[in-house]
Amino acid sequence: MGIPPLRLIAAALGLALLPAAQSAGPALQGTWQGEQSFGRGANARTLVSTYVFKVEGDQFTGLVVNTRNRSEIVDGTLAGDHLAFGTRNPFLPSSTPQRFTAVLAGDGLTVTAVPRANPAGRGSGRGPAPPLVLHRVSDDTEYHLPPDLAHPPLQPFRPLPPNGLALTPPMGWNSWNKFHAAVDDAGVRAMADAMVSSGLRDAGYRYINIDDTWEGTRDAQGNIQSNSKFPDMKALGDYIHAKGLKFGIYSSPGPKTCAGYEGSYRHEEQDARTWASWGVDYLKYDWCSASLVYGPDEMKQAYEKMALALRSTGRPIVLSLCEYGWLDVGSWGAEAGGNLWRTTGDISDRYASMASIGFNQMGREAVAGPGHWNDPDMLEIGNGGMSDDEYRTHMSLWSLLAAPLLAGNDLSKMAPDIRDILANPEVIAVDQDKLGRQGTRLSQQGDLEIWKKPLAGGRAAVGLFNRGDQPASLAVTWSDLGLGPRPRVRDLWAHHDLARAASYTARIPAHGVVLLGVR
Ligand code: GLA
Questions:
Q1: What's the CA gap between 330 and 143, in Å, rounded?
Q2: Taking CB atoms and a 6 Å cutoff, what residues make up the pocket around ligand 1?
Q3: Using CA atoms, how far apart are residues 292 and 288, in angstroms rounded to an integer?
Q4: I want to staple 343 with a disulfide (CB 3.0 to 4.6 A). Which of 203, 325, 410, 419 is the partner?
Q5: pLDDT digits (tens, 9 = 90+) for 214-248
Q6: Cα(294) to centroid(ligand 1), Å
Q7: What is the DSSP letter of 254?
Q8: Three-state DSSP class for 129?
Q9: Which helix (H) or strand (E) holds 500?
């Protein structure tokens, strides 16, 4: 008996293997498009996707761009008219690709997502996404922006000198975590009032920052206008300034913000001038839809473009980069003109979210310092989803990390315990220490972690954290932490000095912290 032909083996394996002469490569190579509808009624939306395939033998690469994001195609393989491939965020190349299979039939290509393995055995509750049917539109193997979204090349990147702002981590309030789209002029004024009456302004909180959803349409000259929730931005800025506070705003380098409002794409200089005329002192610049119009090689230039636009207004404006920590932003954020940059995705008001962000900031400390800070996202303190012990952990950890302290709660309805967590002067002093060093973890034993932040004048702050859900004791010997031998130690939450000794045993509540100042 002879060796079975390859086609028989392939058929036995269930593969539709075509002979080389009939490879589907030429049929696949090119640009394809398809539409998918999701949701019903007012929530209905249509996602238009463009796929570009570049084939080499039985392998292919390419790009997927849809109304919401851009992905690169990885590990594409062709077997007859069957395709298998992954897609991955090109701004986060270490992420796990989403796998797809697809079947080619003439000018149609049906793409099906492979459900992600879920070790916990829980489904998303949404069921599998329906297959997407693509139709071939051209032979083009390069992606081109639709003409209405095209842009001239960005200026080559050149490192910017510091703007002299944010010499300590910015402190203030931001509307997003509590109010999302329910932010308006009256609400922002109420926050400015409460910032003063609660004593938080005098504790150091200065910025009143409006996040997404303030944006309206552009006028005939292309000037950005606020929407009906904000009748007069200049008057609002004046109100905030009259209280001894500063005024912050939000936009995106993309055509749309994350909530789908007007972004600053191709209007950067004009928007910077508008904001300066309103008295804006702080801009959070959120990547969002910029993935549709810029590739990874253009991100720093897109941020620098806004930094230059802000600088040319002559008004000192703090620039906050929000791109979720992609493309190692800490290595270029300051040179692109950023005073701070987000290091993660969005925080939520749950211990698990806060802890997984806060306790995972190690390794970024070298890039933080006066004028340029890592930003593990805004505070959730007072939003109701965590206990006071957990909120003290949040405040302590962010202060040890020299993180921006942007309160995200309703300041006008703040309970005294929450006010006391946000306003604790001894903890704020750790965050705002002039040396500007980001703290690091010294040790981790099970649920217990010791963090240390060097402070000016040879002092240090030490955080003893218990991530477990039962109270625990933790003994520290000062000399083991590079301190001592019998330093002066103060408990910064209890507001008392400890007895002088070579060591200390702390009793730490579940999910709690003991924060100490050591000199
Ligand atoms: C993104 C940001 C958030 C917030 C929203 C607004 O998700 O990371 O902090 O600004 O957009 O749409």
A1: 29
A2: 176, 211-212, 257-259, 286, 322, 346
A3: 9
A4: 325
A5: 999 999 999 999 999 999 999 999 999 999 999 99
A6: 19
A7: S
A8: coil
A9: none
Nearest to 69 by CA among 44, 94, 87: 87
Q: Has 346 been annotated as catalytic?
A: yes
Neighbours of 30 (CB within 10 A): 18
Residue 286 catalytic? Answer: yes
List the residue whose alpha carbon is closest to atom 4 of ligand 1. 176
pLDDT digits (tens, 9 = 90+) for 194-218: 999 999 999 999 999 999 999 999 9
Phi then psi dihedrals of residue 427, to 5 deg = -80, -40
Q: Which atom of ligand 1 has the smallest separation from the CA of 284?
A: 10
Ligand 1 atom index nearest CA of 324: 8
Contact (Cβ atoms closer than 8 angstroms) between residue 312 and residue 294: no
CA 258–ligand 1 middle distance (angstroms): 6
Question: How far is CA 289 from each of CA 68, 80, 253, rounded to the nearest angstrom?
Answer: 6, 36, 8
DSSP per residue, 290-322:
HHHH--GGGHHHHHHHHHHHHHTTTS--EEEEE
**What is the residue with the minimal CA distance to atom 8 of ligand 1?**
346
Report which secondary-structure segment, H or E, holds 92. none
CA atoms within 13 A on the CB side of 502: 3
Which DSSP string do the residues of 219-258 spell out, in sequence order?
Answer: -TT--EEE-TT-S-HHHHHHHHHHTT-EEEEEE-SSSB-T
Structure tokens at 289: 């839809």
